[in-house]
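New to this. Help decode the following:
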Amino acid sequence: MKVLQTFIALLVLCLMANSQRLQSSDHPVKQKPTAFKQVSGLYELEIRLGNTKSIVAGHQWGDKGGQRVITMIRHLYKKESVAIPQSAIGDLCDIKSMKLSASGERAELVLNGADAGSGYLAKIQIIKDEIVSRTVRDGEFPKHFYESTTYVNKAPPGQE
């Protein structure tokens, strides 16, 4: 019985301490964006973020433990839906901003993610309805830590 009373007393003290700590905070919590939508020229892009586990195993750009990953992406070219390879967006976490710029049949999607040591800048190049390349650079050392991917979108011989 004495053990139970001691446990309850400690639990009450912990709850009171946490309550006081929350009340004494005078720094408002900034809400992180959960969706981005932009239209540029012939292109339209919408991204939604959620707190969930990424389906991509291994390294995650911007990952500091609590992952905010892309849970939905909708890409339109001339109002027609375009497939986005999972490898182009699946490892990008905690996106802070998005910019879509287009000129004719070419577009570039720029995603800034995370802060400080885990920050990154991702650039995805699009021509017509195809992703052609992606480069992700480290926020602190962009010339030294980056990855670059080229997507080849050609039909196999005889299936053109």
